[in-house]
Amino acid sequence: MLSSSSTAVKNLPLKRKLCFLLKLVCFVSSVLIFCEFLIYYVVIFQCRWPNVKSGAHMVEKETSASVLKAIILADTHLLGEIKGHWLDKLRREWQMERSFQTALWLLQPDIVFILGDVFDEGKWSSPQAWADDVRRFQKMFRHSVFTELVAIAGNHDVGFHYEMTTYKVNRFEKVFNFTSGKLITRKGINFVLVNSVAMEGDGCAVCRTSEAKLVALSHKLNCSQQKPNHSNKRCSDVEKLPASEPILLQHYPLYRKSDAECTGEDSAPPEEKNIPFKEKYDVLSQEASQKLLWWFQPRLILSGHTHSGCEVLHAGKIPEISVPSFSWRNRNNPSFIMGSITPTDFSLQKCFLPFESRVFTIYCAAGALLVILVLAHVQLLTPPFYFAQRLISKHKAV
């Protein structure tokens, strides 16, 4: 009897240690699961599809089946083998993968648009590096057959104009089925895909081909809408498209002097807002911008490239939304746009992802608490606590 009691007493500290270790493992696991998985559901669950307001010219109210639900994001910048650090890749690509997969599961969009700079080193990458980047992209942005994904070429995908070659453009088009001047029509809504890098206006081979396709598409759309400057004779042999004013999707924004007029928590930092934009580098040239507005007279323009949010009006009536970067690498508060779109109207709502700084703060707080628990367990914090207890006891005695 005495022997068994002695063994039980000896095993008691071991059981306490194992119990404490189990509690630490559960605590660390809970923090990891929340910060790396659950937080995306908590944040994105708060996003809601905007409602489309029915205009007076509509015969009947739009039904939910006639509304196209679109997610628009930009500038994912998947790192390559040249500049990509493995830890940066691991952290930021996991963030984008979890954000995208959570958004698909919770929001169930009909279509997703990525407005260029899908990759960071597409302008440099070798065939093998390109294949590896594409493989990683397809894993991160996998989607069901019920959701369509459309990507637009950006300067980091095919190079700035002076780096762009037919080979790089064809390589991108082969993977993403993208062609500048391509029309995508869904639920009677016309989307025009523009390779804005090819809007240089210098007559290069890629530029000529791209502009020719855009002009031809402009003619089709204008004939379908029966614009006054298009006679019936000129439109007699033209394939008719849905008579819906198009939405332009491109990487470069149309020309604007700077981001000085941009507002909102995801706009450019104050120290960058007044820096003048360089034409054909930060934004399209004034000439190219006027061409696109004249050719298509769009009802909405969606662009990326600046990594910051902005909303401007062109010609006093055509809105352009610059979509911020989707990656923590470029922003502490990345986001995407949710659009409810019909052939005659649209409504947009921004959905923010978890802030990187908040996730970091949670980890720091959890780490500090973990250290305190360990020190308390090994009784390294006993003297201060004992001193405080003595002070309280004396105070009560008095």
Automatic annotation (TrEMBL):
Annotated localization: Endoplasmic reticulum-Golgi intermediate compartment membrane
Pfam families linked: Metallophos
Record-level GO BP terms: endoplasmic reticulum to Golgi vesicle-mediated transport; GPI anchor biosynthetic process
Record InterPro entries: Calcineurin-like_PHP (IPR004843), Metallo-depent_PP-like (IPR029052), MPP_MPPE1 (IPR039541), PGAP5/Cdc1/Ted1 (IPR033308)
Keywords associated with the record: ER-Golgi transport, GPI-anchor biosynthesis, Hydrolase, Manganese, Membrane, Metal-binding, Transmembrane, Transmembrane helix, Transport
UniProt cofactor(s): Mn(2+)
SUPFAM superfamilies attached to this UniProt entry: Metallo-dependent phosphatases
CDD domains for the chain: MPP_MPPE1
Membrane topology according to the record: Multi-pass membrane protein
This protein's GO CC annotations: endomembrane system; endoplasmic reticulum-Golgi intermediate compartment membrane
Superkingdom, taxonomy of origin: Eukaryota
Domain Calcineurin-like phosphoesterase: 69-308
GO terms assigned for molecular function: metal ion binding; phosphoric diester hydrolase activity
Gene3D superfamilies: 3.60.21.10
Record has Manganese as a keyword: yes
Annotated transmembrane regions: 20-43, 360-387
Family: Belongs to the metallophosphoesterase superfamily. MPPE1 family.
Function, in words: Metallophosphoesterase that catalyzes the removal of a side-chain ethanolamine-phosphate (EtNP) from the second mannose of the GPI-anchor protein intermediate. Participates in the glycan remodeling steps of GPI-anchor maturation to allow an efficient transport of GPI-anchor proteins from the endoplasmic reticulum to the Golgi.
Protein name: Metallophosphoesterase 1
Provenance organism: Emberiza fucata
Gene: Mppe1
